[in-house]
Amino acid sequence: AEAAAAKPGLLGRLMGRGAAQPVVRRTLDDEMLEQLEELLISADMGVDTALRVTANMAEGRFGRKLSVAEIKQLLASEVSRIMEPVARPLPIYAKTPQVVLVVGVNGSGKTTTIGKLASQFRAAGKKVVIAAGDTFRAAAVEQLQVWGERANVPVLTAPEGSDPASLAFDAMGRAQEEGADLLLIDTAGRLQNRGDLMEELAKIVRVIRKKDETAPHNTLLVLDATTGQNAVNQVKVFQEISDVSGLVMTKLDGTAKGGVLVALADRFGLPIHAVGVGEQIDDLSPFDPDEFAAALVG
Ligand code: GDP
Fold first, then answer.
1. Full-prediction pTM beyond 0.80?
2. What is the similarity comment for this entry (predicted)?
Protein backbone atom coordinates (compact mmCIF):
# COMPACT_ATOMS: atom_id res chain seq x y z
CA ALA A 1 0.00 0.00 0.00
CA GLU A 2 2.92 2.29 0.70
CA ALA A 3 4.33 1.76 -2.78
CA ALA A 4 0.95 2.57 -4.29
CA ALA A 5 0.72 5.70 -2.19
CA ALA A 6 4.14 6.77 -3.44
CA LYS A 7 2.90 6.55 -7.00
CA PRO A 8 -0.66 7.87 -6.98
CA GLY A 9 -2.60 7.98 -10.20
CA LEU A 10 -4.04 11.21 -11.48
CA LEU A 11 -7.44 10.87 -9.93
CA GLY A 12 -5.91 9.78 -6.66
CA ARG A 13 -4.27 13.18 -6.59
CA LEU A 14 -7.44 15.02 -7.53
CA MET A 15 -9.77 13.26 -5.17
CA GLY A 16 -7.44 12.73 -2.26
CA ARG A 17 -8.90 10.15 0.04
CA GLY A 18 -12.13 10.32 -1.92
CA ALA A 19 -10.47 8.19 -4.60
CA ALA A 20 -10.59 5.28 -2.23
CA GLN A 21 -14.36 5.73 -2.05
CA PRO A 22 -15.50 5.12 -5.60
CA VAL A 23 -19.09 6.01 -4.74
CA VAL A 24 -18.28 9.62 -3.83
CA ARG A 25 -19.91 11.77 -6.50
CA ARG A 26 -18.75 15.06 -7.94
CA THR A 27 -20.45 17.40 -10.34
CA LEU A 28 -18.73 17.67 -13.71
CA ASP A 29 -18.78 21.47 -13.70
CA ASP A 30 -16.30 24.15 -14.79
CA GLU A 31 -14.40 23.93 -11.53
CA MET A 32 -14.05 20.19 -11.79
CA LEU A 33 -12.97 20.39 -15.44
CA GLU A 34 -10.42 23.04 -14.63
CA GLN A 35 -8.97 20.86 -11.90
CA LEU A 36 -8.81 17.97 -14.30
CA GLU A 37 -7.06 20.11 -16.92
CA GLU A 38 -4.45 21.24 -14.42
CA LEU A 39 -3.90 17.68 -13.36
CA LEU A 40 -3.43 16.43 -16.90
CA ILE A 41 -1.04 19.27 -17.69
CA SER A 42 0.96 18.55 -14.55
CA ALA A 43 1.14 14.94 -15.72
CA ASP A 44 3.02 16.13 -18.87
CA MET A 45 0.08 15.66 -21.19
CA GLY A 46 0.53 19.12 -22.68
CA VAL A 47 -2.06 21.91 -22.78
CA ASP A 48 -3.69 21.09 -26.11
CA THR A 49 -4.16 17.42 -25.35
CA ALA A 50 -5.35 18.11 -21.79
CA LEU A 51 -7.98 20.54 -23.06
CA ARG A 52 -9.23 18.14 -25.68
CA VAL A 53 -9.43 15.25 -23.24
CA THR A 54 -11.46 17.24 -20.71
CA ALA A 55 -13.72 18.66 -23.46
CA ASN A 56 -14.43 15.12 -24.64
CA MET A 57 -15.14 14.04 -21.09
CA ALA A 58 -17.62 16.88 -20.61
CA GLU A 59 -19.42 16.33 -23.89
CA GLY A 60 -22.99 15.32 -23.13
CA ARG A 61 -22.19 15.06 -19.42
CA PHE A 62 -21.63 18.65 -18.32
CA GLY A 63 -23.35 19.37 -15.00
CA ARG A 64 -23.95 15.73 -14.23
CA LYS A 65 -22.97 14.17 -10.96
CA LEU A 66 -20.49 11.38 -11.54
CA SER A 67 -18.94 8.93 -9.13
CA VAL A 68 -15.18 8.80 -8.81
CA ALA A 69 -15.27 5.40 -10.47
CA GLU A 70 -17.17 6.84 -13.44
CA ILE A 71 -14.77 9.78 -13.80
CA LYS A 72 -11.83 7.38 -13.69
CA GLN A 73 -13.33 5.20 -16.35
CA LEU A 74 -14.17 8.17 -18.53
CA LEU A 75 -10.67 9.59 -18.33
CA ALA A 76 -9.04 6.21 -18.90
CA SER A 77 -11.16 5.57 -21.98
CA GLU A 78 -10.28 9.00 -23.42
CA VAL A 79 -6.58 8.27 -22.90
CA SER A 80 -6.92 4.78 -24.41
CA ARG A 81 -8.66 6.24 -27.43
CA ILE A 82 -5.68 8.50 -28.12
CA MET A 83 -3.15 5.74 -27.50
CA GLU A 84 -4.74 2.85 -29.37
CA PRO A 85 -3.73 3.94 -32.89
CA VAL A 86 -0.05 4.28 -31.88
CA ALA A 87 0.28 1.00 -30.00
CA ARG A 88 2.07 -1.02 -32.69
CA PRO A 89 4.90 -3.52 -32.25
CA LEU A 90 7.97 -3.09 -34.41
CA PRO A 91 6.87 -4.16 -37.89
CA ILE A 92 8.76 -7.12 -39.30
CA TYR A 93 9.58 -6.94 -42.99
CA ALA A 94 10.20 -9.79 -45.39
CA LYS A 95 13.36 -8.06 -46.58
CA THR A 96 16.42 -9.14 -44.61
CA PRO A 97 18.49 -8.02 -42.95
CA GLN A 98 15.94 -5.60 -41.54
CA VAL A 99 18.00 -2.61 -40.48
CA VAL A 100 16.95 -0.75 -37.35
CA LEU A 101 18.74 2.47 -36.52
CA VAL A 102 18.43 3.35 -32.84
CA VAL A 103 18.65 7.04 -31.94
CA GLY A 104 18.15 9.10 -28.79
CA VAL A 105 20.04 11.24 -26.30
CA ASN A 106 22.67 9.64 -24.08
CA GLY A 107 21.17 8.08 -21.01
CA SER A 108 17.74 7.55 -22.59
CA GLY A 109 18.26 3.79 -22.63
CA LYS A 110 19.40 3.09 -26.20
CA THR A 111 22.01 0.51 -25.27
CA THR A 112 19.71 -1.29 -22.87
CA THR A 113 16.83 -1.28 -25.35
CA ILE A 114 19.05 -2.71 -28.10
CA GLY A 115 20.09 -5.51 -25.73
CA LYS A 116 16.47 -6.25 -24.87
CA LEU A 117 15.32 -6.17 -28.50
CA ALA A 118 18.19 -8.44 -29.55
CA SER A 119 17.24 -10.89 -26.85
CA GLN A 120 13.54 -10.88 -27.83
CA PHE A 121 14.22 -11.42 -31.51
CA ARG A 122 16.83 -14.05 -30.76
CA ALA A 123 14.30 -15.87 -28.57
CA ALA A 124 11.85 -15.71 -31.48
CA GLY A 125 14.38 -17.58 -33.60
CA LYS A 126 15.74 -14.59 -35.51
CA LYS A 127 19.37 -14.11 -36.37
CA VAL A 128 20.46 -10.76 -34.98
CA VAL A 129 23.59 -8.62 -35.38
CA ILE A 130 24.35 -5.51 -33.32
CA ALA A 131 26.59 -2.64 -34.46
CA ALA A 132 28.02 -0.55 -31.60
CA GLY A 133 27.78 2.68 -33.53
CA ASP A 134 28.38 5.05 -30.63
CA THR A 135 32.11 4.85 -31.24
CA PHE A 136 32.76 7.94 -29.13
CA ARG A 137 31.70 6.34 -25.86
CA ALA A 138 33.87 3.38 -24.90
CA ALA A 139 31.49 2.65 -22.03
CA ALA A 140 28.53 2.36 -24.41
CA VAL A 141 30.46 -0.11 -26.57
CA GLU A 142 31.43 -2.21 -23.55
CA GLN A 143 27.87 -2.16 -22.27
CA LEU A 144 26.59 -3.30 -25.62
CA GLN A 145 29.10 -6.16 -25.64
CA VAL A 146 27.76 -7.28 -22.27
CA TRP A 147 24.20 -7.20 -23.62
CA GLY A 148 25.33 -9.07 -26.73
CA GLU A 149 26.80 -11.84 -24.59
CA ARG A 150 23.63 -12.09 -22.54
CA ALA A 151 21.46 -12.23 -25.64
CA ASN A 152 23.95 -14.48 -27.47
CA VAL A 153 24.15 -12.04 -30.37
CA PRO A 154 27.38 -10.83 -32.07
CA VAL A 155 28.29 -7.19 -31.44
CA LEU A 156 30.44 -5.47 -34.04
CA THR A 157 32.70 -2.74 -32.69
CA ALA A 158 35.24 -0.27 -34.02
CA PRO A 159 38.15 1.54 -32.34
CA GLU A 160 37.18 4.45 -30.11
CA GLY A 161 36.70 7.64 -32.08
CA SER A 162 36.49 5.91 -35.45
CA ASP A 163 33.86 6.65 -38.07
CA PRO A 164 30.49 5.12 -37.11
CA ALA A 165 29.41 5.07 -40.76
CA SER A 166 32.31 2.83 -41.66
CA LEU A 167 31.33 0.46 -38.83
CA ALA A 168 27.71 0.52 -40.01
CA PHE A 169 28.86 -0.32 -43.55
CA ASP A 170 30.93 -3.27 -42.32
CA ALA A 171 28.10 -4.44 -40.08
CA MET A 172 25.71 -4.30 -43.00
CA GLY A 173 28.08 -6.47 -45.02
CA ARG A 174 28.46 -8.96 -42.21
CA ALA A 175 24.70 -9.11 -41.59
CA GLN A 176 24.10 -9.76 -45.29
CA GLU A 177 26.82 -12.42 -45.52
CA GLU A 178 25.53 -14.21 -42.45
CA GLY A 179 21.95 -14.03 -43.62
CA ALA A 180 20.92 -12.14 -40.49
CA ASP A 181 17.27 -11.23 -40.06
CA LEU A 182 17.91 -8.10 -38.07
CA LEU A 183 20.69 -5.56 -37.78
CA LEU A 184 20.42 -3.19 -34.80
CA ILE A 185 22.65 -0.12 -35.11
CA ASP A 186 23.40 1.98 -32.02
CA THR A 187 24.21 5.64 -32.63
CA ALA A 188 25.71 8.52 -30.69
CA GLY A 189 23.38 10.69 -28.63
CA ARG A 190 25.31 13.89 -28.30
CA LEU A 191 22.78 16.56 -29.04
CA GLN A 192 25.19 19.31 -27.94
CA ASN A 193 26.25 19.58 -31.53
CA ARG A 194 23.13 18.91 -33.48
CA GLY A 195 24.73 19.62 -36.85
CA ASP A 196 27.46 17.04 -36.30
CA LEU A 197 25.01 14.42 -35.15
CA MET A 198 22.75 15.08 -38.11
CA GLU A 199 25.68 14.66 -40.48
CA GLU A 200 26.79 11.50 -38.71
CA LEU A 201 23.33 9.93 -38.95
CA ALA A 202 22.95 11.01 -42.58
CA LYS A 203 26.31 9.42 -43.41
CA ILE A 204 25.33 6.15 -41.73
CA VAL A 205 22.14 6.10 -43.80
CA ARG A 206 24.05 6.93 -46.98
CA VAL A 207 26.56 4.11 -46.61
CA ILE A 208 24.12 1.40 -45.57
CA ARG A 209 22.02 2.30 -48.63
CA LYS A 210 24.98 1.38 -50.79
CA LYS A 211 24.31 -2.19 -49.67
CA ASP A 212 20.51 -1.98 -49.50
CA GLU A 213 18.77 1.08 -50.86
CA THR A 214 15.67 0.40 -48.74
CA ALA A 215 17.64 0.59 -45.45
CA PRO A 216 17.23 1.63 -42.70
CA HIS A 217 13.80 0.07 -42.40
CA ASN A 218 13.12 1.63 -39.01
CA THR A 219 14.56 4.53 -37.09
CA LEU A 220 13.70 3.98 -33.47
CA LEU A 221 13.81 6.95 -31.11
CA VAL A 222 14.38 5.96 -27.48
CA LEU A 223 12.90 8.33 -24.90
CA ASP A 224 13.25 8.37 -21.12
CA ALA A 225 9.90 8.68 -19.29
CA THR A 226 11.53 10.51 -16.41
CA THR A 227 12.38 13.49 -18.63
CA GLY A 228 8.71 14.45 -18.81
CA GLN A 229 7.81 17.21 -21.24
CA ASN A 230 11.41 17.21 -22.53
CA ALA A 231 10.46 14.20 -24.60
CA VAL A 232 8.34 16.43 -26.84
CA ASN A 233 11.39 18.49 -27.68
CA GLN A 234 13.50 15.40 -28.27
CA VAL A 235 10.99 14.07 -30.79
CA LYS A 236 11.01 17.41 -32.60
CA VAL A 237 14.81 17.56 -32.72
CA PHE A 238 15.28 13.94 -33.80
CA GLN A 239 12.61 14.31 -36.47
CA GLU A 240 14.65 17.20 -37.84
CA ILE A 241 17.92 15.30 -37.90
CA SER A 242 16.68 11.79 -38.76
CA ASP A 243 13.70 9.91 -40.14
CA VAL A 244 12.12 8.78 -36.88
CA SER A 245 9.66 5.96 -37.62
CA GLY A 246 8.74 4.87 -34.12
CA LEU A 247 9.29 5.29 -30.40
CA VAL A 248 10.36 3.26 -27.40
CA MET A 249 9.75 4.81 -23.98
CA THR A 250 12.00 3.56 -21.20
CA LYS A 251 11.87 3.72 -17.41
CA LEU A 252 8.11 3.39 -17.09
CA ASP A 253 8.79 1.16 -14.08
CA GLY A 254 9.81 4.16 -11.98
CA THR A 255 7.62 6.90 -10.57
CA ALA A 256 7.13 8.42 -14.02
CA LYS A 257 3.81 7.38 -15.49
CA GLY A 258 4.72 8.66 -18.94
CA GLY A 259 1.85 11.13 -19.33
CA VAL A 260 3.97 12.76 -22.02
CA LEU A 261 3.26 9.75 -24.23
CA VAL A 262 -0.31 10.99 -24.56
CA ALA A 263 0.96 14.38 -25.77
CA LEU A 264 3.35 12.62 -28.17
CA ALA A 265 0.66 10.32 -29.56
CA ASP A 266 -1.74 13.22 -30.00
CA ARG A 267 0.80 15.49 -31.60
CA PHE A 268 3.07 13.26 -33.69
CA GLY A 269 1.12 10.03 -34.09
CA LEU A 270 4.35 8.00 -34.18
CA PRO A 271 3.94 4.33 -33.31
CA ILE A 272 5.04 3.29 -29.83
CA HIS A 273 6.77 -0.02 -30.43
CA ALA A 274 7.64 -0.97 -26.86
CA VAL A 275 8.15 0.31 -23.33
CA GLY A 276 11.05 -0.29 -20.98
CA VAL A 277 9.96 -1.47 -17.57
CA GLY A 278 13.25 -2.25 -15.83
CA GLU A 279 16.97 -2.77 -16.23
CA GLN A 280 16.92 -6.51 -16.92
CA ILE A 281 17.01 -8.14 -20.33
CA ASP A 282 13.35 -9.19 -20.25
CA ASP A 283 12.09 -5.78 -19.13
CA LEU A 284 10.77 -4.65 -22.50
CA SER A 285 7.02 -4.92 -23.06
CA PRO A 286 4.64 -4.23 -25.89
CA PHE A 287 2.79 -0.98 -25.35
CA ASP A 288 -0.68 -1.71 -23.99
CA PRO A 289 -2.96 1.36 -24.23
CA ASP A 290 -5.55 0.16 -21.71
CA GLU A 291 -2.99 -0.87 -19.13
CA PHE A 292 -1.13 2.41 -19.66
CA ALA A 293 -4.32 4.47 -19.30
CA ALA A 294 -5.37 2.61 -16.17
CA ALA A 295 -1.95 3.15 -14.55
CA LEU A 296 -1.94 6.82 -15.53
CA VAL A 297 -5.41 7.49 -14.17
CA GLY A 298 -4.87 5.28 -11.15
P1 GDP B 1 22.06 5.10 -23.47
O2 GDP B 1 23.07 6.09 -22.99
O3 GDP B 1 20.95 5.77 -24.20
O4 GDP B 1 22.63 3.96 -24.22
O5 GDP B 1 21.37 4.53 -22.14
P6 GDP B 1 21.60 3.16 -21.36
O7 GDP B 1 20.99 2.04 -22.11
O8 GDP B 1 23.02 3.04 -20.97
O9 GDP B 1 20.68 3.42 -20.08
C10 GDP B 1 20.93 4.44 -19.15
C11 GDP B 1 20.50 3.98 -17.77
O12 GDP B 1 19.09 3.78 -17.75
C13 GDP B 1 21.13 2.64 -17.36
O14 GDP B 1 21.42 2.70 -16.00
C15 GDP B 1 20.00 1.64 -17.60
O16 GDP B 1 20.07 0.52 -16.74
C17 GDP B 1 18.78 2.47 -17.30
N18 GDP B 1 17.57 2.00 -18.01
C19 GDP B 1 17.39 1.81 -19.33
N20 GDP B 1 16.13 1.41 -19.59
C21 GDP B 1 15.49 1.32 -18.41
C22 GDP B 1 14.14 0.97 -17.99
O23 GDP B 1 13.25 0.66 -18.78
N24 GDP B 1 13.90 1.03 -16.65
C25 GDP B 1 14.84 1.40 -15.73
N26 GDP B 1 14.49 1.43 -14.46
N27 GDP B 1 16.09 1.75 -16.09
C28 GDP B 1 16.41 1.71 -17.40
1. yes
2. Belongs to the GTP-binding SRP family. FtsY subfamily.
